[in-house]
Design brief:
The protein is of the alpha+beta class and 210 residues long. The chain contains seven helices and five strands, in the order E-H-E-H-E-E-H-H-H-H-H-E. The longest helix is centred in the middle third of the chain and has 31 residues. The chain starts with a strand and ends with a strand.
Length: 210
């Protein structure tokens, strides 16, 4: 059985989890408490020597790191993978964009604003810098979504899941969703897709068939 190692509240961990939910995959979920350092425990390092989550172990025993690589693997041949070569290239372009222009800024700003709020004051300058760095990427994304329902012309795909992971919690990073109306509309559309489950439900079932 496919196994997903993940931590609660993580946008990156949400990506493969949501994809498997929406594709109806049977999988085993193991929660790793990163705030307690469980990702560096000998037990977990035996699974993933890099000591990070998420981590996917396929039913053949192959391990896959990086959330967007997991999405690509899970979606192959499914309704979530665009079939046209140009659409697949566009999907990769936006998935690279998400990991370079959005996640590196939204994620830490959210971590020290919402997940570890006791550090908010001491990291105020860093948070402000991350917020400022996220703004151009969010503006570009908002412009892209202004006249479309989903990221690609062909419809809902792993490209949307990749973007959704951290973009949908941008207010938890101290950013204003009201500044990005097209993103707000898109977030609502993603939540209406078949089989969608919110980040808050990650971890409620350790092993399930979606």
């Amino acid at each position: 059985m496919t196994k997903l190692y993940a931590c609660l509240g993580s946008g990156n961990c949400m990506k493969p989890w949501l994809a498997m939910q929406q594709l109806g995959h049977t999988f085993e979920l193991t929660l790793v408490d990163v705030l307690k350092g469980e990702q560096k425990s000998p037990e977990y390092l035996a699974v993933n020597p890099l000591g990070v989550v998420p981590y996917l172990v396929t039913d053949t025993g192959m391990g896959i790191g990086e959330s967007n690589a997991m999405l690509w693997y899970l979606a192959e041949g499914s309704k979530l993978m665009p079939s046209d070569p140009s659409e697949r290239a566009a999907a990769l372009q936006w998935m690279f964009f998400e990991q370079s222009k959005l996640e590196p800024f939204i994620s830490p700003a959210r971590f020290f604003t919402t997940i570890l709020p006791q550090e908010r004051t001491s990291r105020a300058a860093d948070i402000a810098a991350w917020q400022e760095s996220a703004a151009p990427g969010l503006a570009r994304l908002d412009s892209h979504l202004a006249n479309r329902d989903f990221m690609l012309d062909s419809g809902y795909s792993i490209t949307d899941i990749a973007m959704f992971g951290y973009v949908h919690v941008l207010e938890e990073a101290g950013l204003l969703l009201a500044d990005y109306p097209a993103i707000a509309t898109w977030i609502n559309k993603v939540t209406q897709t078949e089989g969608f489950r919110p980040l808050s439900e990650l971890g409620q079932h350790r092993s399930r068939a979606a």
